[in-house]
Amino acid sequence: MSRWVLPPAILLGGYMNNLHLYKIDLEYIKFLHNNYDNRVQYNSAKGKEYNVNRPYVGVLVDINGYQYFAPLEHPRPQHKTLKSNPHIIKIKDGNYGLIGLNNMIPVHKKLLIDFDISKDPNKDILLTQFIFCQNKAKMIIERANEIYRKRTLCPNSFEEKVYCDFKKLEQGLSVYCKNKGIELPSNNKPVDRPSALSERIAAAREAAATQDRHKFKNNTDPIK
Questions:
Q1: Lowest pLDDT segment from 8-17, 24-33, 81-90, 167-176
Q2: pLDDT value for 45
Q3: CA distances to 98, 135, 206 from 138, in Å
Q4: Interatomic CA distance for residues 45 and 33, integer angstroms
Q5: 20-180 maps to which CATH number?
Q6: DSSP secondary structure letters along the chain
Q7: I need a surface site. Which of 45, 109, 149, 207 has the fewest CB within 10 A?
Q8: Nearest CA-CA partner of 98 in 117, 79, 77, 126
Q9: What percent of the chain clears pLDDT 90, i.e. is strictly above it?
C-alpha cells in the first residue's frame, strides 16, 4: 500500500502550485476560539479526540503577511442541498464535504502537523478531498483572497456575522506565538491597510462639510 504522507507546503510568491492537508495544534485552535473568535471551529461540547481529528486545508495563500488555512467539513447529508456561497466550496457537489473559507485562520508553520492519510480512519474521504484541493488550487486561492478582502475592508452585515474576524485572529496568532516563545517571521506582521471604505467615505463627507462651513462663514462675514 502506498503511503500518502504529506510534505510541508512550499510558498511560491503569493500562490502555491499545490495545496496540502494538515492538522493544526489543538491548543492553538482552542486559544483562538475562546479568546478571539468563537467562529473558529472548535467544539467545546465534544471531546479532544473529535477536535484533534478535524483536518485543515493549507496553505491557501499568503495574505497580509500570514499563511491562512481553511477547515474541511466531513460530509453531511445537508451539504448536497446547501446553497452555494462565495465562502463555501462544495467538494464534488457536497458528496465529500466542503471547505469553509469563512472559518479560515492564520497559522505559524510550527503549529502545523503533518499526518499520514493512509492511517487515518477517514482516509478514503480525505484522499478525495486532497485530490480535489490539488485540482482546484487556483480557484481556492482566489476565493480565499476575496473572502479576506471582503471581511477586512468593508463587510456587510452577513459577512460580519458569518466570516471570522481575520484581523483579530492575526492578533491572536501573534499573542499565542509570543506566549509560546515562537518567533514570528518578519512577514508575519500586519501591513498598513487603507481605512475601511465606510471610514474613508465618512472622512470625505466630514472634510466636505468642514469646507462648506468655512465657505458659508466667509460669505456671511460683514463687509468692512
A1: 8-17
A2: 77
A3: 16, 8, 41
A4: 13
A5: 3.10.129.130
A6: ----BPPPP--BTTB-S--EEEEE-HHHHHHHHHHT-TTSS--TTS-HHHHHT--EEEEEEEETTEEEEEEEEPP-GGGTTPPPBTTEEETTTTTT-EEEGGG-EEE-GGGEE--BGGGSTTHHHHHHHHHHHHHTHHHHHHHHHHHHHHHHH---HHHHHHS--HHHHHHHHHHHHHHHTPPPPTTSSPPP-PPPHHHHHHHHHHHHHHHHHHHHHHHHSPP-
A7: 45
A8: 79
A9: 45
Position with higher pLDDT, 11 vs 25 = 25
| Residues 89-108, mean pLDDT to the nearest whole number | 94
Q: What is the pLDDT of residue 202?
A: 52
Q: 34: which 3 cell numbers?
A: 475562546
Domain layout of the chain by residue ranges: 20-180, 194-224
Q: Is the pLDDT of residue 183 over 50?
A: yes
Q: What radius of gyration do the chain's Cα atoms show?
A: 22
Instruction: Using CA atoms of 113, 107, 125, 127 in order, give the dihedral in degrees to the nearest 10.
Output: -70
Among 125, 103, 159, smallest CA distance to 53 is for: 125
Q: What is the pLDDT of residues 120-151, one digit of tens each?
A: 888 999 999 999 998 998 999 899 999 999 99
Q: Per DSSP, what are the bridge partners of residue 197?
A: none
Q: Could you identify the residue written with the cell 495563500?
A: 61
